[in-house]
Amino acid sequence: MSKFPENFIWGVACASYQCEGAWNEDGKGPNIWDDFCHEQGRQHVKNRDTGDTACDVYHRYREDVALMKRHNIKAYRFSVSWARVIPDGDGEVNEKGLQFYEALVDELLASGIEPMITLYHWDLPSALQDKGGWLNRDIVAAFGRYASIVARRLKGKVRKYMTLNEPQCAAFLGYGNGEHAPGWKLSEEKVAQVFHIMCLAHSEAYRAIKAVDPETMVGAAPCGRQCYPETDTPENREAAYRETFNLSSVQGWAFTTNIFLDSLLLKKYDESAPAAVRRFARTIDPADWEKMETLDFIGINVYNGDMVDSKGGYVPRYPGFPLTATKWKVSPEVMHYCVVNNYRRYGKPIVITENGQSCNDRVFLDGKVHDPERIDFLHRYLLELKKGIDEGVPVLGYLQWSFLDNFEWAQGYDERFGIVYVDYRTGERIPKDSAAWYAKVIETNGGCL
Ligand code: NOJ
Across the strands, what pairs with 422? Predict the structure, then answer.
């Protein structure tokens, strides 16, 4: 296949709570995932797993960066733990926390790997949750301050930030159905309020980072339903576009990219908004819309998609449709159309900020970890991504989720998404076959696909 664009960013991604461990070391404050996992009398996470130690990246990051370098990785997207840097979210700064991230960034740069930072990947300082978390507007200023502190410390070293990771999960799973921390189960209107405050927080952080260094690119990494056409006709494409952004879809409104991105980039809700969202929208102070900032790039976390017919109806899957270990549908076509659709709507450059699959990986008799399903998955998705690029969508990069196996939230350690296997008993890292395969993809800039 022809190569990907010059300077295409081939990377991997992870998040603080999922891999760092060291949950109470060097002055770090508690966060909502610490609390959620430790809650006595209630089990929120499979096997009662916690991120207390996780992959111990806090202590082993040098080894991990060396492993990335050996696999030709060009960029590492990781998140900063807010409570490690500001233990109570809005008060004193923990110098040791900043030192850790600076050391990690320096190690990456020395290895020729671009650091890409997510500021919020779901681990809110507990002290802020106690004040209402993302339902309390005070968090907007606190988030801006936190962004500014990180950006100042890493000025000239980090050139790409993502403010929020998957606000859809943080808002809906955290405040709607309670599957994620903080485990609240509130009304749809309250969930809409969380989204709105998150948009204001993104905007505040955007301004804060730009004030430190206007050259830095600031985006976010939303997720959401991505539809693709049953067959590639103009009519079907149109239907897939409409259903992707349809807030009144039978599939709901919270898992859409536009519930977040429309507020920022179009400064309004889509007219398909359902009653609960419209009720909340009527309570918004009109001055808020003036505060909404843009994004310099749109990150998209994408794992699977929905096939729709010419009327936007969901096409049922045939029996035995291919699934990942998490039972997510293997639907590579989504890659092509998600970049086309989001570019058509917003006209911003795109980074695939997450993509990958979980497998039931284990160490084979030969001591290696063979993961042909993951290789096949990534291969298919990348071929489809290239179609979007060839149609003219400016896709800046692709970040595989994830480098190491890690803590998969409510699923604990049962789900393995890494291209590097982690033995959680010892911390040992074993690159899977997919790691060598990905190294080759990067080396050839996609030419080997
Ligand atoms: C979405 C999230 O951003 C990440 O934290 C999670 O582990 C992966 N996708 C896989 O579910």
Answer: 429
